[in-house]
Design goal:
- By secondary structure, the chain is an alpha/beta fold.
- The protein has 16 helices and ten strands.
- It folds into three domains: about 5-40; about 55-135 and about 280-354, Periplasmic binding protein-like II (D-Maltodextrin-Binding Protein, domain 2); about 140-260, Glycine betaine-binding periplasmic protein, domain 2 (D-Maltodextrin-Binding Protein, domain 2, 3-Layer(aba) Sandwich), CATH 3.40.190.100.
- The strands form two sheets. Strands 3, 4, 5, 6, 7, 8, 9 and 10 form an eight-stranded mixed beta sheet that branches. The protein has a two-stranded parallel ribbon with strand order 1-2.
- α3 (about 65-80) links the parallel β1 (about 55-60) and β2 (about 85-90).
- The chain is globular.
Length: about 350
């Protein structure tokens, strides 16, 4: 609404001092109110943010670094851009997929397809979950440190490991070597356990499954710092792979059918196969996508270049940042990336909050 000085003019019988003061007062009021009308691009935008849900958005909270980081980015944008509250439900990979299917959580930010191919296919067949967005292309491998590769130049492939079991002694079972597998409850645990069996390593190597991702990282980091020989499964992009000088062990050529069985906890006859490139995508409960179509559309547009994700993970590790801290750092320093995921008005609300 436009308010003019004339509309606020206090009438006077003459053009004397009182009239001039009245007109000055009126003009001042008009200018002040006019500026208020122009001021709130940010304020009006903030007022316009109204969540599509009347409850908090429920995120599945898996505890690896890329997922922790992305969940906090999505939660920040949910609050500042869409006016939504949120909560994180701590859960591991396979239980998270089951929870998403039931609707106990709304969003599974990172699904690593090749680690859960068979369970994902079953979940998708129910119609209760939807695959949206492609975050980046991840990778998985069995690694040894480069210093181990230099000490044991004949160790090239995972199938060579039985000949070198004494170089990787398991402190709890000294007659065998130790293979550090995937944390318990994660989808990659199924694949790496089945692959361990498929390669016939049961007689020469124990399969050590750390209780958590943090336990796994701490054990591997400590061994690496002591220059101990270690062989282990890991995925990337991650701070650990980025910070260590590692060599991938060769695995038999990738075979789609063999790998599909490796992802099945009930695989009757596991046969060895290399890991394929691993599409990493976001999944949502179908009911949530119908209740919150605008926020779902935002999720579907999230994509992070792999080199940028590696840089973010390195920054997180080097500066010992919590996930919410690195999320805010990313939002402040990489606006050229995340603003592409959002409508302009929503992006402006997020920018104004930083």
């Amino acid at each position: 609404m436009s308010i003019s000085a004339e509309s606020l003019h206090i009438q006077s019988k003459n053009n004397g001092p009182l009239a001039r003061k009245s007109r000055a007062f009126a003009l001042g009021c008009a200018l002040a109110l006019g500026s208020l009308g122009m001021m709130p691009a940010a304020a009006n935008a903030a007022e316009a943010a109204q969540c599509e849900l009347d409850r908090p958005i429920r995120f599945a909270g898996m505890n690896w670094e890329t997922n922790l980081f992305l969940v906090e980015v999505e939660r920040y944008i949910a609050e500042k851009g869409y006016g939504c509250k949120s909560e994180v439900v701590p859960v591991e990979t396979l239980p998270a997929l089951a929870a998403l299917t039931r609707g106990d959580v709304d969003i599974n930010t990172e699904v690593w397809l090749n680690s859960v191919a068979e369970p994902w296919e079953k979940a998708e067949a129910t119609g209760n979950v939807k695959r949206i967005g492609e975050l980046y292309m991840g990778g998985e491998a069995w690694f040894i440190p480069r210093y181990t590769a230099e000490r044991l130049p004949e160790l090239k492939a995972a199938s060579d490991l039985p000949k070198f079991k004494d170089e990787f002694t398991d402190p709890e079972e000294p007659s065998k070597g130790r293979f550090y597998g995937c944390p318990a409850g994660w989808g990659c645990e199924v694949v790496s356990t089945n692959l361990h069996e498929a390669l016939g390593l049961g007689d020469s190597f124990t399969y050590f499954s750390p209780g958590t991702g943090a336990t796994q990282k701490a054990a591997l980091t400590a061994a690496y710092q002591r220059k101990e020989n270690i062989v282990f499964y890991y995925w990337f992009p991650t701070p650990l792979v980025g910070s260590m000088d590692l060599v991938q062990l060769e695995l038999p050529e990738y075979d789609k059918e063999r790998h599909a069985c490796l992802t099945d906890v009930n695989c009757a006859n596991p046969e060895p196969s290399a890991y394929p490139e691993n599409p990493v995508f976001t999944a949502v409960h179908t009911g949530f996508s119908e209740q919150a179509p605008k926020y779902t559309e935002f999720l579907s547009k999230i994509s992070v270049p792999l080199d940028l994700m590696n840089a973010v993970m390195a920054h997180m590790d080097e500066n010992e940042l919590e996930p919410d801290e690195v999320a805010e750092w990313f939002l402040k320093n990489h606006q050229d990336v995340w603003t592409q995921w959002l409508p302009e008005a929503t992006a402006q609300r997020v920018k104004a909050s930083l």
